[in-house]
Write a structure and sequence with these properties.
Structural class: alpha+beta
Helix content: 25-40%
Radius of gyration: 24 Å
Number of strands: 18
Shape: globular
Strand content: 15-25%
Order of helices and strands: HEHHEEEHEEEEEEHHEHEHEHEEEHEE
Distance between the termini: 41 Å
Number of helices: 10
Length: 371
């Protein structure tokens, strides 16, 4: 299942497909007993997609058979044992993808000539992704971090990838002679180690240019110092002195950086509050889902702030106002927040998710306007 949404991947997902491009969305759950319903809901959602395909006269028999097969293969790819909060299946002639999201999605089936990407975009923004570089003398690993976890990146070396993890042997064929003459350098002053770290710095630079994110670098102090000496890719990183991370498991790396990630998130939430207060005084402020939706549609939002678990179901009245609705209404829009987030990102706005309760007066969503 896919987790990380890069700009290049998003462009590819938004590319028009031969009709039908099917998007199947269903909520999932991480823990018992709620996750017991997930297999049934998922099978029902896929069955509904097939039913819609059968009933659509615009879908030829050949394409229907093709997409049916893609849906079945996608269903086989789903691993509900590692489910998060939402699941998205994309299927079109000749292709399928399965995305696991750390953000709830509405239950929905959409047939179009493009895939429905707004929920992926919003989940990526909400997760506030970051990188962790774990450094030791013989192994340098790269981890992709999100709301509550880190996942190791396993990459092929290339223009936009560093080829992580990097590893080497610590055995130095010349060490015995150097020891006899008293010229054995410490591990991180050794030229072989410095060359290894220089390669890691170059690899990290390729990743950051392609996928810029906040960066944490963790390792023993001597490792952090040596990496800083040999290159500049990590010059703006937050250093996290912590031994034993080069070969560590995900939980150890996460626990090493977790306090600093929390500090950064609190500082960002405080900065958002200050920006909103300043904007309110300048009359450059929008609050509430209806007002923010209108401003987003006009491309006027510079900074969008959303509480992490803010959800609202609405319907559109006359094309220019949103009013509350129930999920059973035929014209209900259950993922209007994700729609607003995607629109704001597409128009160059900065999007920040903040802790619940931060935007009480703005009923969960607010924006700083460009004009």
């Amino acid at each position: 299942m896919e987790h990380a949404l890069s700009p290049a991947t998003l462009i590819e997902l938004r590319r028009p497909r031969p009709y039908p491009a099917v998007s199947v969305l269903t909520p999932t759950h991480r823990r018992e007993p709620d996750n017991a319903q997930d297999p049934v809901r998922l099978r029902n959602a896929v069955a509904e997609a097939k039913k819609r395909l059968e009933a659509d006269p615009a879908v030829t028999r050949r394409r229907r058979v093709d997409v049916f097969g893609q849906l079945d293969r996608a269903l086989a790819d789903v691993d509900l044992a590692h489910a998060e909060d939402g699941l998205v299946i994309f299927a079109a002639p000749g292709e399928h993808q399965v995305w696991s999201l750390a953000r709830p999605v509405p239950e929905r089936v959409v047939l179009s000539d493009t895939f429905l990407t707004r929920n992926l975009v919003s989940a990526q923004a909400a997760e506030r992704p970051f990188w962790v570089l774990a450094v030791s003398a013989d192994r340098v690993s790269l981890w992709s971090g999100g709301t509550d976890r880190v996942v190791e990146e396993i990459q092929e070396a290339g223009e936009n990838a560093g080829g992580f993890p990097l590893s080497r042997s610590l055995e130095d064929p010349d060490a015995e002679r150097q020891e006899r003459v008293g010229d054995l350098p410490s591990t991180f002053q050794d030229e072989h180690t410095r060359r290894f770290l220089r390669d890691a710095d170059l690899a990290l630079g390729r990743v950051l240019r392609a996928h810029p994110r906040p960066l944490y670098v963790t390792g023993e102090p001597a490792a952090l110092s040596a990496l800083a000496d040999v290159g500049g890719a990590a010059k703006d990183a937050t250093h996290v002195p912590h031994g034993g991370v080069g070969h560590a498991r995900a939980d150890t790396v996460w626990q090493a950086v977790r306090p600093l990630v929390a500090d950064r998130q609190r500082a960002e939430a405080d900065a958002v509050r200050r920006d909103l207060e300043t904007a309110r005084g300048r009359r450059e402020f929008a609050a509430g889902v209806d007002e923010v939706w209108q401003s987003a549609a006009e491309g006027r939002i510079r900074l969008l702030a959303v509480e992490e678990n803010f959800r609202v179901t609405v319907r559109d009245v006359g094309g220019d106002h949103l009013v509350p609705a129930s999920g059973g209404d035929l014209d209900a829009r259950e993922d209007i927040v994700d729609e607003i987030v995607e629109r704001c990102l597409d128009t160059g706005a900065e999007v920040r998710f903040v802790p619940d309760g931060t935007l009480t007066e703005a009923t969960g969503i607010a924006g700083v306007l460009r004009y």
